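Tokens for chain A. Residues wanted.
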């Protein structure tokens, strides 16, 4: 099926409140433009330089989301346009994002990445550290960022019960934090293989790549 057919099918299956990030990493601008022509406006990339190149070349009403692990020294290259940074996992990174956002007189929205998977290859913060960051004095001083929710990646496995358990865990934390944090609106969980399960478990934003654009090399 074509990119536009894939997108149409996925969009039809999403509840109205769930936002779709089309993960276009490694894919050419022509593929992004095909998705764009169907009305898709939110795209996700995992490398800053690649996202900057695409931002420069493509229509300016695209919302760019950084979904990959961040290198702090590269935050400055995307600070003038990035719409949401999903994978923030330290106060130091928040401070750098704040510093760069300030230079452009912007408030950059960020999600804290929670560690929910078993494998230690997945980045993310233990739940206790998330609560520490959210209640810290240092965070209060950062006026050019807004933490609008959580992001998580489940273990890569066929075991649906395990994935469901991990998504449920992050949703429970999300709901708890929401009561004290007015800005908390976004729970970014779910990828091509598990987005339906993620939606059952409270996802408000899914990040779907290969199911739209085909497999990556
Ligand atoms: C690549 C990537 C995705 C999309 O993965 P697919 O399985 O292709 O849908 C989602 N989230 C993150 C963080 C990614 O790096």
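Reply:
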């Amino acid at each position: 099926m074509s990119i536009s057919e894939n997108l149409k099918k996925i969009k039809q299956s999403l509840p109205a409140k769930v936002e779709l990030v089309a993960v276009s990493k490694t894919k050419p601008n022509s593929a992004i433009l095909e998705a764009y022509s169907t009305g898709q406006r939110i795209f996700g990339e995992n490398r800053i330089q690649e996202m900057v190149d695409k931002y420069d070349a493509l229509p300016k009403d695209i919302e760019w989301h950084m979904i990959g692990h961040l290198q702090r020294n590269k935050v400055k290259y995307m600070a003038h346009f990035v719409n949401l940074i999903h994978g923030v996992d330290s106060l130091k990174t928040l401070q750098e994002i704040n510093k760069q956002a300030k230079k452009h007189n912007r408030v950059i929205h960020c999600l804290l990445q929670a560690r929910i998977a078993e494998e230690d290859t997945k980045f993310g913060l233990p739940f206790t550290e998330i609560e520490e960051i959210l209640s810290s004095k240092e965070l209060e001083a950062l006026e050019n960022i807004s933490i609008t929710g959580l992001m998580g990646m489940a273990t890569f496995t066929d075991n649906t019960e395990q994935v469901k358990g991990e998504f449920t865990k992050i949703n429970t934390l999300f709901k708890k934090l929401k009561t004290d944090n007015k800005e908390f609106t976004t729970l970014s969980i779910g990828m091509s293989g598990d987005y339906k399960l993620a939606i059952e478990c409270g996802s408000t934003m899914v990040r779907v790549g290969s199911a739209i654009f085909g497999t990556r090399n």
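The mean pLDDT is 96. Residues 120 and 155 are 10 Å apart (CA to CA).
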